[in-house]
Design goal:
Blueprint: H1 3-16, H2 25-42, H3 46-55, H4 70-81, H5 86-98, H6 113-124, H7 128-141, H8 159-164, H9 169-175, H10 187-211
Bound molecules: adenosine-5'-diphosphate (ADP) and nickel (II) ion (NI).
């Protein structure tokens, strides 16, 4: 590993220390590893991919009062302080500005191959067993209910609507997590997404069965009346 990558990893680790919303250092490390895996299969620029993966959540809008400009700014300051080639800085900041999910119906900005890879790796970390864990951790940190059968999922047509919504964890599966499999950019990520997606569907099926006190023998649901 190069010194730049090592120092960037240390900077990110120190900056994100103590996060309990699913955006901790280990999320970054997983995205970094998965990005490298995808980058090798897709023959992308490994330096840009790794720097963007490491820095992609450095100034998340959810933790800076909705200010989307913080991430690219922090990344630019850091990379400039490390005397990184300006073209690389540009490529990395471009990715950081456009990588995050903005709502089910929001059209995303075009991404470079390197950006597509980091976005895929980030999305892979939001689905499957880890995705399930992160969704509940995020809701818990926000003090939200895990489920409320009276609240229907919503498909957000704007980023503002998605940002402001206080969704339950189960609704978040319908509003985001179950949509990600079909939104992977690269073939390598699509292949990895299949099994993770199937596992979430199985989880939701069991969740519903337990919530409704379904009898596993007959499949019948327990009602409080009658
Ligand atoms: P990313 O790291 O992909 O940018 P986000 O910033 O959108 O992810 O969210 C971080 C984690 O928290 C993800 O696993 C995401 O699914 C989860 N999360 C985001 N919003 C919600 C929500 N409203 N309810 C439950 N989980 C959420
Ligand atoms: Ni992320």
């Amino acid at each position: 590993m190069t010194i730049l990558m090592e120092q960037t990893a240390r900077y990110v680790r120190e900056t994100l220390a103590g996060d309990s919303t699913g955006h901790d250092w280990w999320h970054i490390e997983r995205v970094w590893k998965t990005s490298l895996l995808l980058a090798r299969q897709e023959q992308a620029d490994l330096q840009v991919v790794q720097l963007a993966a490491l820095l992609h959540d450095i100034g998340d809008w959810k933790f800076h009062g909705g200010d989307e400009a913080v991430g690219p700014r922090l990344a630019r300051d850091w990379l400039s302080s490390q005397s990184v080639d300006p073209a690389v800085i540009e490529a990395v900041c471009q990715i950081i500005a456009n990588v995050s999910f903005k709502g089910a119906g929001v059209v995303a900005a075009p991404l470079s191959l390197e950006g597509q890879i980091v976005q895929d790796a980030d999305r892979l970390d939001a689905i499957g067993a880890i995705g399930i864990g992160r969704a509940f951790a995020y809701s818990g940190a926000k003090g939200r209910a895990m489920h409320d059968p009276d609240q229907r999922p919503e498909y957000h047509a704007s980023f503002a609507a998605y940002q402001n919504k206080q969704s339950t964890t189960i609704n978040h599966f319908h509003e985001k997590l179950l949509l990600l499999k079909d939104r992977m950019n690269t073939a390598a990520a699509r292949a990895l997404a299949e099994e993770r997606h199937a596992f979430m569907l199985e989880f939701l099926r069991r969740f519903e069965a337990e919530w409704t006190a379904q009898d596993p023998a007959t499949g019948s649901i327990s009602h409080l009346t009658g």
